[in-house]
């Protein structure tokens, strides 16, 4: 019996727990006092929200194998639903609006996920694109969603929880951090239950899964539902805690692709991958921008930056697909461990 | 005519803990004696007595007492213009090891797919445990007590060996996903039960050393064994094996044959297997059905079938090839 | 209320002609999918690149034939480059991986195209007037008709190419059975490179026509994404399917916009094709012309 499977497993789990603990201490205990507004507003908060959206998408596409190119649409649903719940039900606390928004997004997600019962792969992708374009159109076309605001762009309400105002960069960061941690923990928990294994089974061998008794229908719809819930909450956070405006065009096809890129680069079918990928995606434009100004000076304007970003992003995708299709998580594992292959995300 | 074969008495060393006559021996790891296990043990006991009555006795058995475990009645199936199965009747008695053999394209895999509901036959009915179907409901196979393996392997590559086996208990679990996430009460009991059963089967099939490895990373022969484990953990009454020994070395085949026989002896499972290697089949099975061009051309105990002129003729071109490839392995 | 038949016909014809252009783009997809199983998400960005390059050269006062040849050369080089750097390393990976790779590719091409030529909108004048003329009481745009003619010519040329040239025959062989083609001695990497070049040429024609119609701008690649519902309807591996699918989508879209659109306040063109394709898929999961795959367990 090889010994590779037991003891190193325990110690690597312990190592993960310790590093997570340290991260939490830094995130809650040090950063709020040491960090600048810029750090919170431009880096940490968007990083956390994109990670959350990526966790949601990864549940659906990475774990359950249902390709979705319409993530941004469900984020938009979450954002607008949260806004409307908050606006129209006067006594509803903000947190409740966000939770209800999540459920709304879950419902829409399940509806647009129904085709997955008959469609696979590219065909399913077309269906999720339908969601993307339809939702974008509907939210723009029907003024009711934006409270008939003439410009179609609305301000998000200020953040407050249990009467405590969180309307500052640090407050918004802490709010986001807590929600993201909570939902990520739930996602992690789900993935390690038998239901989570059902997701993987449906992804890897749908027919065999059906044969052994996995309820394939229910599993796929559950994947769409849970994923869209998380993505919807991420959308609400994006509008409330990051942009502080709610408008449909920030949730366009590019955004959907952005989340897809995050999970590919980070590592499909892993929870940590969402965070690794989001980190890369948030950091690299900043690095690129600094580098560009440094090398090319004034010629490196925002247009050039935007285009260069597209090129680098595309190249990164292809690079990862060729060199390390299991993403950053896999690279990380190769650096830190030399064990026989294991299953932990 | 002789085929290289496996004698019924050979068994790999790891199974020596089973007594030679297949008498019931308590499983290697102890399961909690809760109600579920007790009822299963009682079920096993009754299967055991039936199994002992039917093993190695062949055709006279057909008329005796209980319902067949599974029977096919006038099954016909075509794809486009090609006839895959052309009016086949087949009766499988509880606790027997039934082989279905025949040259390539004879319709064997199609038959297993009909038995597991993946194909709907154009005509005929499938009877399982007293119930009758025009198309077997694939998603309820586990609850019908049927489990199968796949010719080209259908393991969940993203799960470990242990999780691959444990997940096959899914049909017996009632707790919803939220209950599972909370992890208390019913969900906790079911999870523990599934893990214990998986551990028992993994021990039984000697997979302990690879239990935490990703199923997709294993060598072919081990993957086949994991598939068998996954099928067995559901304590099926009927086990459908689709070429369980394809692509294995002679040693691996002997081991696999031993495991299959042990599964029947230990758990009283009825085994229906499709296999190309005639030698294996003759040594392992109680009765053999031979298909050719979608029709059944022979049906009976191995010794009778191997001498049947129709069978020999169907195989004339194939037998020589089988021998030479056997030697080459 | 009288049903305005001539108006209906006008809209229908306009839609059909627009559909021709969708078909053009879809054909580029089909070429690549049929021979290599790759769904080339970058086809749209290739259309954009071709159009942008051509129009920018024209604006820099290059004579039309030179601009055309230069753009053609660019597309050829692009095709060869893609095969070498992206496809070859990924040759045995599952289709979804290749699809993601073309997603990345589309980003690179779009970024590079606009980095090189700028992000402003360009007008593209191909020398064909967009004057309407009357046929039996129905107004038809001269441009649309010319576009249809050009597209038809290209399809005809492709048909001739597949049937009568060695390379065309090789394409068909590879499309039919990659392993067999390989066994027979066909050099797959060369053929794939040729296929991508052909797709590039198709993209060029599509780019010029679409660019003349809409102006050459970034959203061109988005509009061209509509080819996906076309493929869904027509099957991913059928050129006749792409043509019929394109016509159907074009016509349905226009008609829907005119007759159903006002109910919703317009703008349904952005999603109608997708939802319609979805509806059809739910009835026929392989599309109208697609091959029903029998899943052998």
Structure in words:
The complex is a heterotrimer of chains A (345), B (329) and C (297). Chain A has helices at 7-34, 37-63, 71-88, 94-113, 121-141, 169-191, 194-204, 206-212, 216-243, 253-266, 272-296, 302-323, 327-336; strands spanning 154-155, 160-161, 164-165, 245-246. With 345 residues, chain A is an all-alpha fold. The longest helix of chain A has 28 residues, at 7-34. Chain B has eleven helices and ten strands. Chain B is globular, with a radius of gyration of 20 Å. The two termini of chain B are 21 Å apart. The model of chain C is unreliable at 292-297 (pLDDT under 50). Chain C has a two-stranded antiparallel sheet. Chain C is mainly α and 297 residues long. The chains are: A mainly alpha (345), B alpha/beta (329), C mainly alpha (297). Chains A and C meet through helix 5, helix 10 and helix 12 of A and helix 4, helix 10 and helix 12 of C.
Topology:
The complex is a heterotrimer of chains A (345), B (329) and C (297).
Chain A lengths: L6 H28 L2 H27 L7 H18 L5 H20 L7 H21 L12 E2 L4 E2 L2 E2 L3 H23 L2 H11 L1 H7 L3 H28 L1 E2 L6 H14 L5 H25 L5 H22 L3 H10 L9
Antiparallel strand pairs in A: 1-4, 2-3
Helix pairs in contact in A: 2-6, 2-7, 2-9, 2-10, 2-11, 3-4, 3-5, 3-9, 4-9, 6-9, 7-8, 7-9, 10-11, 11-12
Chain B lengths: L34 H20 L15 E10 L2 E11 L4 E5 L6 H8 L7 E6 L2 E3 L7 H4 L1 E3 L12 H6 L10 H6 L2 H20 L15 H13 L5 E5 L7 H18 L2 E5 L3 H7 L2 E6 L2 E6 L1 H6 L1 H20 L1
Parallel strand pairs in B: 3-8, 3-9, 6-7, 7-8
Antiparallel strand pairs in B: 1-2, 1-4, 4-5, 9-10
Chain C lengths: L4 H32 L6 H17 L4 H24 L7 H23 L14 E4 L2 E4 H23 L1 H11 L1 H7 L3 H27 L5 H4 L3 H8 L4 H26 L4 H15 L14
Antiparallel strand pairs in C: 1-2
Q: First CA to last CA of chain B: what distance?
A: 21 Å
> Mean of the pLDDT scores of chain B?
78
Strand adjacency order, main sheet of chain B: 6-7-8-3-9-10
Stretches with pLDDT under 50, minimum 5 residues of chain C = 292-297
Q: What characterizes the major β-sheet of chain C?
A: 2 strands, antiparallel
Short description:
With 345 residues, chain A is mainly alpha-helical. Helices cover 74% and strands 2% of the residues of chain A.
Considering the chains and any ligands shown, give keywords for the structure:
heterotrimer; A: 345 residues; two-stranded antiparallel sheet; two-stranded antiparallel ribbon; 74% helix; globular; C: 297 residues; 3% strand
